[in-house]
Here is the input.
Amino acid sequence: MTFAPPARRAAQSARERRTGALLVLPAVALTVLVVGGGLGATVLQSLGLLPIVGAPSFSFDAFTADPDSVWDAVGVSLWVATASTLIAAVVGTAAAMVIVSGRGGARLVAALGAATVTVPHLIGAATIGLLLADAGVLSRLLGIPPESWPAFVGGPLWAAAIAEFAWKESAFIAVVVTGTLATRVAQYDESAALLGAGRRQRFLRVFLPLTAPALLITSAISFVFALASYEVSWLLGRTYPEPLPVLAVRLFQGVSLDSRPEAAAVAVITAAIALGVVALTFAALRRTAAWR
Here is the structure.
């Protein structure tokens, strides 16, 4: 058995990286063109440099037109996205552990997760609304009158919207984490068990470090999606305060064209929060052992 010298291995690794970069370059270029162009136009419109009518004039008026509504929208959006992502991460990780274990109910959990991923969020929101409304299916099955039923739909805690996001995104997280467990963690877990490590030690020393990258990435995707999703918050949430995507759509569809820059400003704030979360996620990924 022969081994290539270090210089040759380094050159081969560099060639593989260049080849991989060239293969994904067309998709990346197209994504940057579409997303970057749309985001750039939105930023220019929010700053008054791309007006629908009138001459361009640099201004932050769109950001300061109604600061109370914007801050309320930021608070609601962060609450819904954070709560639903935490629940989805816990439930999805637990489901992945059950699926990989192969014990009783593993196939059922896997089938439910795969079926849930294919359900559109609009259908899921309608289903959750029919299930948790004060005159919905669940209240009727339990025999609780509408006046005594908690305000899950349109309530102050946004429980129905959080439940929908958590339900859908937990299936997505479970599918991705299951792949990680099946390909990497299972072998290390078996080795640790043979060496005498208990369940708690294997969970802390093997499972969490090796699944951290997949869990962080899927949680960030779920957070950003919940932050910017319109239909679920519009169907299941309150009329005020509105989350960021609902506020942006309402302003954009307003009768007066003067509200268009305000809608663009709300969209820019949403994008800034999403990009900040992505940056924090990559900073956390670089600190994980599996990433290094």
In short: The two ends are 28 Å apart (CA to CA).
